[in-house]
């Protein structure tokens, strides 16, 4: 009985302490700029289903969530589309590594925030910029883990494959790809996490809808409860999205002894 | 008929030199060896004697620096399904089940799924892994992994099985059982086996011929035919006589250096 609920109980301790601290801090008025947990909870209900304040944000949670999800998954998919083939090439072809690796290593430390102005010039105000920025955020973890995965294949496996009659290009499909799947998967998981991580920056590009847009509005309007609601929704959505990816991974990677997230 | 005259493997004056940075390593010097079909040959020696290099040349993973390595009289150009290798650390494909690891060679040859199933079933039974056919390598013990590696090579119709200290990482009990199973398979299938080990006892238990190698540079010290009847009793006086003789040969290079 206890062992069944233990993980859940342990996982809830830190959030509960944080909530308690928040409650104490706001009721004792250590700060007047942050609303109480109760006020935020009430606002969250209104944000989700409406019927309490009936302002511009009432019952709009789903619209904003879906708008953000489309950018997160769209940008992520675009990133995977570029990063996977480029990663496979850099990992397996020395000339591709010499051609691309130095350039990408210099580009990598530049934060997504720094790309914001250029992105708006290149892709205009709105959704296209948001896609581009999310894509950029998800690109590097997918790329680096793919490169690592295809480079780290045990050389013995190539010998084993060739003495069993599998040579040349067939080894790429029969040995390199399956051996790299765990790393590629880790890259995709990190990439999707980063796509959620950069969504607020992505939605600083003047899009009307999206959780990032809501948070920017909340900042402009000094509505801290709106900001906190947006933060909580992003956190939960990112968490659920990661859990789904991990579940898929555990199913696909049953063979791998060290892949249980 | 040509087969009975031509040895399956001929090693003629083979040397192998590895160059690493500024160092030159003479891994193998002027080795000559001829192996007939159906023989069980053990290569034995201390580390650095070139036994693994010689095995890898027979497999086609390495090319001789000079001399000729021939199979059925033709030069060994590269790895080939007719010569199967069993590695010490198994080298199974971790993403494939026992069944699919054994079926890897047949699948690479482009056989139909029906034929592959027939072959894999046969060899899964041969190594006694029917209950684990769908398990992944990380779920198996070391002994079971090595059984899969042996079955994988046999399923590919290998004529020559090359084994590089295959039982070195196993505990003594498992090792003895696998030695018995390997001898049983060898006697039933008329395979040719070249088996690298550093254990004199293992070599005498298994081989028709024990090739003793010595290091610095790696070379063949002697080629010893064993007349002991099978099954061999490790505690018999005959067994221990041979162990003493081979042990002395194994350490002969020390004596030479001292003198």
Give the secondary structure arrangement, pairings included.
The complex is a heterodimer of chains A (261) and B (259).
Chain A (H helix, E strand, L loop, with lengths): L1 H26 L9 H13 L11 H32 L1 H14 L4 H12 L3 H25 L3 H9 L5 H29 L1 H4 L8 H10 L3 H29 L9
Chain B lengths: L1 H4 L3 E12 L2 E13 L4 E5 L6 H9 L6 E6 L2 E2 L7 E4 L11 H5 L1 H5 L4 H14 L15 H13 L5 E5 L7 H18 L2 E6 L2 H7 L2 E6 L4 E7 L11 H14 L1 H7 L1
Helix pairs in contact in B: 5-6
Question: Overview of this structure, please?
Answer:
The complex is a heterodimer of chains A (261) and B (259). Chain A has 261 residues and is mainly alpha-helical. Chain A has helices spanning 2-27, 37-49, 61-92, 94-107, 112-123, 127-151, 155-163, 169-197, 199-202, 211-220, 224-252. Chain A has one domain (59-252): MetI-like fold. Chain A contains 11 helices and no strands. The longest helix of chain A is centred in the first third of the chain and has 32 residues, at 61-92. Chain B has 2 domains: 35-65 and 76-82 and 159-259, P-loop containing nucleotide triphosphate hydrolases (Rossmann fold, 3-Layer(aba) Sandwich), CATH 3.40.50; 92-158, no CATH class. Chain B has helices at 2-5, 51-59, 98-102, 104-108, 113-126, 142-154, 172-189, 200-206, 237-250, 252-258; strands at residues 9-20, 23-35, 40-44, 66-71, 74-75, 83-86, 160-164, 192-197, 209-214, 219-225. In chain B, a hairpin with a 4-residue loop joins strand 9 (209-214) and strand 10. Chains A and B meet through helix 7 and helix 8 of A and strand 6 and helix 4 of B.
């Amino acid at each position: 009985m206890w062992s069944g609920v233990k993980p859940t109980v342990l996982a809830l301790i830190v959030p509960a302490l944080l909530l308690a601290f928040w409650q104490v801090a706001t009721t004792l008025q250590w700060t007047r700029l942050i609303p109480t947990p109760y006020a935020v909870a009430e606002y969250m209900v209104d944000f989700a289903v409406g019927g309490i304040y009936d302002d511009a944000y009432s019952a709009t949670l789903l619209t904003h969530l879906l708008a953000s999800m489309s950018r997160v998954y769209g940008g992520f998919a675009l990133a995977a589309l570029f990063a996977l083939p480029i990663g496979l090439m850099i990992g397996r072809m020395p000339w591709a590594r010499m051609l691309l690796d130095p350039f990408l290593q210099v580009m990598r430390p530049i934060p997504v925030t720094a790309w914001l102005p250029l992105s708006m010039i290149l892709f205009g105000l709105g959704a296209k910029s948001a896609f581009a920025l999310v894509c950029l955020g998800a690109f590097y973890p997918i790329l680096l883990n793919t490169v690592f995965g295809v480079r780290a294949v045990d050389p013995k496996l190539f010998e084993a494959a060739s003495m069993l009659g599998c040579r040349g290009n067939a080894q790429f499909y029969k040995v390199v790809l399956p051996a790299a799947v765990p790393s590629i998967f880790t890259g995709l998981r990190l990439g999707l996490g980063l796509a959620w991580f950069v969504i607020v920056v992505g939605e600083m590009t003047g899009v009307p809808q999206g959780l990032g847009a809501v948070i920017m509005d909340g900042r402009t309007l000094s509505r801290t409860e709106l900001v906190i609601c947006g933060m909580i929704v992003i956190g939960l959505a990112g968490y659920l999205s990661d859990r789904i990816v991990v579940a898929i991974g555990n199913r696909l990677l049953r063979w791998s002894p060290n892949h249980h997230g | 008929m040509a087969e009975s005259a031509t040895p399956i493997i001929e090693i003629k004056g083979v040397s192998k030199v590895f160059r690493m940075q500024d160092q030159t390593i003479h891994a193998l010097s002027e080795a000559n060896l001829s192996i007939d079909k159906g023989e069980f040959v053990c290569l034995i020696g201390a580390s650095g004697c070139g036994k693994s290099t010689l095995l890898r040349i027979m497999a086609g993973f390495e090319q001789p620096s000079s001399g000729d390595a021939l199979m059925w009289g033709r030069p060994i150009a590269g790895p080939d399904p007719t010569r199967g290798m069993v590695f010490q650390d198994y080298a199974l494909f971790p993403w494939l089940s026992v069944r699919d690891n054994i079926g890897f060679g047949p699948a690479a040859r482009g056989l139909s799924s029906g034929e592959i199933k027939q072959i894999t079933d046969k060899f899964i039974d041969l190594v006694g892994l029917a209950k684990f056919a769908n398990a992944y390598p990380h779920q198996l013990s070391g002994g079971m992994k090595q059984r899969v590696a042996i079955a994988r090579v046999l399923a590919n119709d290998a004529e020559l099985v090359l084994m590089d200290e295959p039982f070195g990482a196993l505990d003594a009990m498992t090792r003895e059982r696998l030695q018995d199973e390997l001898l049983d398979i060898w006697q039933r299938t008329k395979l040719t086996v070249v088996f690298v080990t550093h254990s004199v006892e293992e070599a005498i238990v298994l081989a028709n011929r024990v090739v003793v190698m010595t290091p610095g540079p790696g070379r063949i010290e002697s080629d010893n035919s064993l007349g002991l009847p099978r099954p061999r009793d490790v505690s018999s006086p005959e067994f221990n006589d041979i162990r003493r003789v081979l042990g002395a040969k194994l350490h002969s290079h020390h004596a030479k250096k001292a003198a």
